Amino acid sequence: MRNGLLIDYEFCSGCQSCEVACKKEHGFGVGVWGIRVLDEGPWEIDEKNLNWNKIPTPTSLCDLCADRQAEGKLPTCVHHCLAGVMKFGPIDELVVELDKKPNQVLFVPGPYTCK
Amino acid sequence: MTTRAKIDSGVENFKNDLGKPWQWEEGGYTVTRGCAWSAPGCHPVGCGVKFYVNEEGILEKVEGDENQPITQGRLCVRCLTLPDFTYHPDRVIYPMKRAKEDRGKNKWVRTTWEDAYDIIEKNIKALKEEYGPESIVVFGGTGREGGPMCGPYGAAMIGTPNACYTQSGYACYIPRVAAATYIAGVTYPEMDYAGGLPGRYDDPAYKVPEVLVAWGKEPLPSNGDGFFGHSVLDCMKRGSKLISIDPRANWLATRAAYHLPVRPGTDTALGMAMLNIIISEDLYDHEFVSKWTYGFDQLAERVKTMTPEMAAEICGIDVEDIYGATRMYANAENAAILWGLATDQKANGAQSGQCMLALEAITGNLDIPGGQLLGDVNDSLGDLGFGWKELGPALQNKIIGLKEYPAYVGMVLNSHADLTLEAMETGVPYAIKGGFIASTNLLAGTCAAQPKRWHDAMQKLDFVFAADCWITPTVQCCADVILPIASFAERQSMVGTHYGASPNMLGSVVDAVKVGETKGDLEIQYELGCRLNPGTYARFANFEEFRAEFRMGNCGMTYEDMREKVVVQREVRYKKYETGRLRPDGKPGFNTPTGRVELYSTMFRQFGDDPLPYYEEPQRSPISTPELMEEYPFVLTTGARTYAYFHSEGKQIPLLRELNPDPLLEINPKDAKALGIEDGEWVNVENEFGKCELRAKVTPVVKQGVVHAQHGFWFPEEDGEEPHLFGVWRCNINELIPHHFVGKLGFGAPFKCVICKVEKLSK
């Protein structure tokens, strides 16, 4: 069973703790990310409503914190997420969570299969 | 220790450090648990941190501590980058001095603490003898441990009455505290987020708020006044509905049931209209009103003068939304208003605060579970008035502004900010000759209006010393000596939520690591105080005794006990007005002259202001100065917080700077189009008081006709010497904020409601 990251973007505040925690964990510097918060918005749906979703998106460098996993620890992005909107685990367990509410996305990072 | 699950992340299924002691060894590291508070600056939330120190004694990494009951392992970018802050090559880690003629130049030389203290002692004593102790001013800021010590730094350490938080009208926090103190006799009604309850949101004593009102506050990045901002999201996930009152559609506002994008500075009109609706539609708590409030009928009369329709017109919002949001708030079984900094940043702010307190009171939300939590009358971090009594009446009466603004100066025991600058400039009522820059970077577009005037006035002082972690533009401009202050990984102290004023938690600040020769703010106060004003410190045999009284005073623990426990939740008691815990005499009721929440304020009346709320236009606005709008067509609000920085701090940390490289001006797409301004383009922002350059962010978060400017920018990578001074003037939005545009009681200044023009820059 693969592991994944389940993200509830209804409540992601865009604090970027995931980005920076990841950089510190992996030693990534400026301009390199293991996860990045995509800023989908803000744009006007109508006069009263803006579309604005912040979606933490693992990059090709995301290894789901393999070293931490080996020690039985959570990936650092999940551990530090201020909004508490990230979950890590086997996909079958996350799918159950995914079905509980809308505005979630399940990422399964890993090496490209085409290369 | 009981094991608790981490908020919403399933940490219980993974290996974690729940139940670990305050210190242990792991994989070549000494891991120490502590709580975060200053430096780097933040408000006292006391987020739980684990410091990983390697065998060479280097702080290699920081992680969030799962054991902290409020933050539960969560941590923001500023704490995550603490190692980068700690070992940055620009960090000041030894005392340094510079000849007076070299002010503004990078001619600092390292010295010893002994020598630095000797220089300070010699100069301060000479100034005190020649010009009197009142000729020395302490310049105070916010967010560092030294912030709330501004008063004691002055009165106790130096022996001057003139401790001064330099922001015009004390336009941060104190206007709200004054409203709460004078009207309800409490420090600050905070949203109850179960911070003191062992079971947190699931504790049987708690009830998740049905409605939250974020009013002029962006709590998620700001953690204002020690409130852990993301608690709002915790509650919303558990069912709380949100009303957002903010000119900006900050991200949180997009999740609100109602977003009321008021024109900046018009909140009091809205507050009065909401009271009007609640009273006229009989949505108020009759029992609370009759038992615990004073002046309800007069308030009802007054708010009739502000109909929702009038407020809608003034604020530029839909009247249906005022009705809808007000009914939702009033009908909720429990609700909390999160009053923000915007309350303070207008001359009419005391009245905004008055309205919010009245709303909280008449809806019966004061001190109930999931409502507005009140502090116990005896709760605070320490004696903020330390040293004042010892000054004696002659010096006390010399504090600048006591005659003009007694409600301000007498309450907070700070000299009035605007009048202090005027005294420095004119020598009236007396000459100011010396200064202590107490961990504040007031020139960098933070806590000063018209910062160039402060710069010029501070440059003229005979002697200035500073305490900071960096050579900031403020230090570079005029300090002769700088004392290096410790971070929260480098000293022994403690932190209490909201300076101890909200009953949530107390936590230890630990010295997990030694960096250069830094010392804690409190230690500096004690050591310098023993030299400059020894009588006041004579009753303490040593620093530990001083710290015990000043920091550990109300928790009944020694520092060593606290360090072992790391975090202690405080007992939460609701409805303290029934049990006598709001009054020093132990009688039920509120600590006001009438013993009730004064909807009609006898204290406001005594100080010469209207006892009831009233609306006043900002001094510059489309309504008050229509003749200026052709030249300055935008309403300007400033200073919304970001995750990357605490005000001016953090600009030299690459991983933080990457998040917010340049100071931004948010402008509506339609306005930008009309001016031919592209997203990302540098623009000139200007008004009759000053100008600066900012980078346009074209975004619908602001309405047409309103722009928002980021504050607190300087450029540590640029030339630090005068006159460039790290580029501090180029992007300094506070140059556009006028001096001494304050409210009747001396509180509030228009940092969030002036006018300006925006133009393309030709470069």
Indicate the CATH class of one domain in chain B: Alpha Beta
Give the distance, in angstroms, between the N- and C-terminal Cα atoms of chain A. Answer: 22 Å
Beta content of chain B comes to: 15-25%
Record field, number of beta strands of chain A: 5
CATH fold assignment of one domain in chain B: Dimethylsulfoxide Reductase, domain 2
Strand content of chain A: 25-35%
Low-confidence stretches of chain A: none
Q: Could you characterize what this model shows?
A:
The complex is a heterodimer of chains A (115) and B (763). Chain A is α+β, with helices and mostly antiparallel strands and 115 residues long. Chain A has one domain (3-107): Alpha-Beta Plaits (2-Layer Sandwich). Chain A is built from 4 helices and 5 strands; from the N terminus they run βαββααβαβ. Chain A has helices at residues 17-26, 66-70, 76-80, 91-98; strands spanning 3-8, 35-46, 49-58, 86-90, 104-107. In chain A, the strands form 2 sheets. A 3-stranded antiparallel beta sheet of chain A has the order 4-1-5. Chain A is globular. The relative contact order of chain A is 0.31. Among the domains of chain B are: 113-171 and 384-484 and 520-548, Rossmann fold (3-Layer(aba) Sandwich); 190-373 and 592-606, 3-Layer(aba) Sandwich (Dimethylsulfoxide Reductase, domain 2), CATH 3.40.228; 626-760, Barwin-like endoglucanases. The longest helix of chain B has 19 residues, at 113-131. The termini of chain B are far apart. The relative contact order of chain B is 0.16. Chain B has a 7-stranded mixed beta sheet. In chain B, strands 23-27-24-26-25-28 form a 6-stranded mixed barrel. Chains A and B meet through α1, β2, β3, α3 and β4 of A and β4 and α7 of B.
